[in-house]
Design brief:
The complex is a heterodimer.
Chain A lengths: L1 H36 L3 H29 L6 H19 L1 H10 L10 H4 L4 H31 L1
Helix pairs in contact in A: 1-2, 1-3, 3-6
Chain B lengths: L2 H35 L10 H29 L6 H19 L1 H11 L2 H4 L4 H4 L4 H44 L1
Helix pairs in contact in B: 1-2, 1-3, 3-7
Classes of the chains: A mainly alpha, B mainly alpha.
Chain lengths: ~160, ~180
């Protein structure tokens, strides 16, 4: 049970690290381009390219999750473990727009447990889309695994 | 070549595009709902309900697309992995997701690289929508996944072919 635990925790840490890295890289690039090239198409093109590369990296992370996740023995515990360690953080990401709207109506009182770089970032929508997709993936996989384990127990 | 993977991937593509269109429609629904019920009011006058409504629709459709990806993974891994099936998946899922992922990149290139002819084939609801950012995100993630899966499958097939050819050459050596 230690291997899946280490893998899922490692995956979540890498995932959050890549979100943060992208956020910083984009800020740096925006600053560099506006200082050197002003506001022209060339200013926004490298940022789009950076976003494209970042999304490909997230896709690669998804593949690693799929590939190694399917190698572990499918038990109820491992399914629960994956759902809790990966599903809950990505569900938090998916709820970012909701948090923003609630905070807006509440005169910008943001919930304290959310890191500032997440909800004040210009990429809230991108993060929410990534979170929603990954949560949907985890939810269906969790249901499939639970059904499979229950059927096996009955047999 | 087995017809099952072909039918599955095409069916998956159709459901995927329909769910993207549903995602797009929620914007039109929000605008008309606010125009009808909250004309001339500020955001503070809006009740939490319509906002919650729209965000929940948005979240729901994203979760459905994530579930579609899980289905693609789960069923796709059950097909026999050959060069042909790997190419088929890359063509059927990878190419549409590449088009989605490069929506904003192409938008920058259109006036400079004279790509208007390419651009006119792209449906307007994809690039004129406020959801373009979300489409790019979905496309990028799918493309990254498909690319690595393709490389992985090709390497696996090449290894399998190598093992087979070694097995075939063994008896010849014995005869010598």
């Amino acid at each position: 049970m230690k291997k899946p635990l280490a893998f899922y925790v490692g995956w979540t840490v890498t995932f959050i690290f890549s979100l943060k890295l992208y956020s910083y890289a984009d800020l740096w690039l925006m600053d560099y381009m506006s200082r050197n090239y002003g506001s022209s198409w060339i200013n926004s093109f490298p940022r789009s390219l950076l976003e494209f590369s970042f999304l490909i990296i997230i896709g690669i992370l998804l593949f690693l999750l799929v590939y190694f996740g399917f190698r572990f023995e499918p038990t109820r515990k491992s399914a629960m473990l994956e759902f809790v360690i990966i599903g809950i953080p990505v569900f938090g990401l998916a709820l970012l727009p909701l948090m923003n709207h609630l905070a807006y109506l509440n005169h910008f009182h943001y919930p304290e447990f959310f890191p500032t770089w997440l909800y004040r970032s210009p990429f809230t929508r991108t993060y929410a889309a990534i979170g929603g997709l990954l949560f949907g993936y985890e939810l269906l996989l969790f249901i499939i695994r639970m059904v499979k384990c229950t059927a096996r127990v009955r047999v | 070549m087995n017809k099952k993977p072909l039918v599955f991937y095409i069916g998956w593509d159709v459901i995927f595009i329909v769910s993207l269109k549903i995602y797009d429609l929620r914007d039109i629904y929000l605008i008309s709902y606010i125009k009808e019920n909250y004309a001339g009011k500020t955001i503070y006058d809006l009740s939490i309900l319509p906002i919650l409504h729209v965000i929940l629709i948005e979240l729901g459709v994203l979760i459905i697309i994530g579930a579609l990806i899980a289905l693609l993974v789960y069923i796709g891994f059950q097909f026999k992995s050959t060069w042909k099936s790997a190419l088929l998946e890359l063509a059927a899922i990878g190419i549409p997701s590449f088009c989605l992922a490069t929506l904003t990149l192409v938008r920058h290139l259109v006036p400079y690289a004279n790509w208007y002819s390419y651009w006119q084939y792209c449906p307007k609801w994809l690039y004129y929508s406020s959801s373009t950012q979300t489409y790019v995100t979905i496309g990028g993630i799918l493309l990254g996944y498909e690319l690595l899966l393709f490389i992985f499958r090709i390497v696996k097939c090449a290894k399998k072919a190598d093992t087979l050819s070694e097995d075939e050459s063994l008896p010849e050596r014995e005869e010598e």
